[in-house]
Design goal:
- By secondary structure, the protein is α/β, with parallel strands linked by helices.
- The protein contains 16 helices and 12 strands.
- An 8-stranded parallel β-barrel has the order 3-4-5-6-8-10-11-12, surrounded by 4 helices.
- Helix 6 packs parallel to helix 7.
- The radius of gyration is 24 Å and the shape is globular.
- The chain starts with 31 loop residues before the first strand and ends with a helix.
- One of its GO terms (cellular component) is cytoplasm.
- It catalyses: alpha-D-xylose = alpha-D-xylulofuranose.
């Protein structure tokens, strides 16, 4: 045991009337919602990077946090692992996620770096045997080191491509050995800074080949989890090839990967792409691409990815509506890809952020489930499309009529359709009854 969270007791559910800041007010993991435990709906995970690896810096200032594992190499990595699993236990967290660079320092060679990751992975395995926290997903950091300044899979240098493959192989195998449910590919720099020195077609071909290699190796080692791509439109690159869900789907479809890869969708990334989280979830669900999600939010006054903890029940309710209508997240979950503010320097602040985020998700889940159970909203939307249930309309979608047939029917029957209200305000008011 460490003394990092000294004096703090495990976080318990105390109910909505509790004033204890170190207690859950709404997140009751065993409460049944729509016939399933709340924890099984949400499947919450703690992100190793923002929680334990981030130092509190921003573009205009460096480290603000003082953590006992900083600047201590592998010794620090072991301390960090101890603190991480103590926090998982305090929060009663069922899952966590990590990048290789989060858990162990990089060595002088790929082999040394991978050995460092494996050593910490062995610590994880031992701690997971005695605790209940499991691995939601693992991933490789293919963006921080300067070798990746021009991308990893999309790099103009094939040696960088090969180095990235070596990292991914190691983390994919470790994820498999730790029982991870997913492996995430986030192309942090898989894009371009300027078209003046970029061959887009070449780079996309490389990216597709890299993903095929990952899929092939996952199958070879018997990995049964999902392989996920995390869309993001920009930042750090000017333009990234995994811009949003629709772009990712088109890319995967082109390269015959659409049945093998799904999406890990982040709130902040959806916002940067000019979308809502609800939109990205709805698109993914419609395409069969919904794999997992990252729970956070951006500051609406900032033009970049601020990764704050979720705090809007109305917005998250709409997200849960899409997830529940899709049948849930399956092997995915809600990863808290969120970080405390750089002025929140106390260990307890890490707990406050996750407690608040889980309470928001719990309230949103229950609101969405109630909205669906009530049925009024679904009936209103279904009524708007009721005409497509008729025989003539089904014939259109079934490919049984031509453009000329449609034109002739309109003329013959003197069809003159009139607009009908979309009732947006009514629907907004209806949804607000549940949040």
């Amino acid at each position: 045991m460490t003394d990092f969270f000294k004096g703090i007791s495990p976080i318990k559910f105390e109910g909505a009337d509790s004033t204890n800041p170190l207690a859950y007010r709404h997140y009751n993991k065993d409460e049944l919602v729509a016939g399933k435990r709340m924890e099984d709906h949400i499947r919450p995970a703690i992100a190793y990077w923002h929680t334990f690896a981030w130092e509190g810096g921003d573009p205009f200032g460096g480290r603000t946090f003082d953590r006992p594992w900083y600047d201590k190499g592998m010794e620090g990595a072991r301390i960090k692992a101890d603190v991480a699993f103590e926090m998982f236990d305090l929060l009663d967290a069922p899952f966590f996620c990590f990048h290789d660079a989060d858990i162990a320092p990089e060595g002088a060679t790929l082999a040394e770096s991978n050995r460092n990751v494996r050593e910490i992975g062995e610590i994880f395995a031992r701690k997971m045997q005695s605790g209940r926290t499991r691995l939601l997903w693992g991933t490789a950091n293919l963006f921080s080191n300067r070798r990746y300044m021009s991308g990893a899979a999309t790099n103009p240098d094939p040696d960088v491509f090969a180095y990235a493959a070596g990292q991914v192989k190691n983390v994919l195998e470790l994820t498999h050995e730790l029982g991870g449910d997913n492996y995430v590919l986030w192309g942090g720099r898989e894009g371009y800074e300027t078209l003046l020195n970029t061959k887009i077609g070449q780079e996309q071909d490389q990216m597709a080949r890299f993903i095929h290699l990952v899929i092939e190796h996952a199958e070879k080692i018997g990995f049964k989890g999902q392989v996920l791509i995390e869309p993001k439109p920009q930042e750090p690159s000017k333009h990234q090839y995994d811009y949003d869900v629709a772009t990712v789907y088109g890319f995967l479809k082109r390269y015959d990967l659409d049945t093998k890869v799904k999406c890990n969708i982040e709130v902040g990334h959806a916002f940067l792409a000019g979308h809502s989280f609800e939109h990205e979830l709805a698109v993914a669900a419609s395409l069969g691409m919904l794999g997992s999600v990252d729970a956070n939010r951006n500051d609406l006054q900032s033009g970049w990815d601020t990764d704050q903890f979720p705090n809007s029940v109305p917005e998250t309710t709409l997200a849960f509506y899409q997830i529940l209508k899709n049948g849930g997240l399956g092997k995915g979950g809600f990863n808290f890809d969120a970080k405390v503010r750089r002025q929140s320097i106390d260990p307890a602040d890490l707990l406050y952020g996750h407690i608040g985020g889980l309470d928001v998700l719990a309230r949103s889940l229950k609101a969405a489930a109630a909205l669906i159970a009530d049925g009024t909203y679904d009936k209103a939307v279904d009524a708007r499309y009721a005409g497509w249930q008729g025989a003539d309309a089904k014939a259109i979608l079934g490919g049984k009529v031509s453009l000329a047939d449609l034109a002739a029917r309109v003329e013959k029957d003197n069809i003159n359709p009139q607009p009908r209200s979309g009732q947006q305000e009514y629907l907004e008011n209806l949804i607000n009854r549940f949040v």
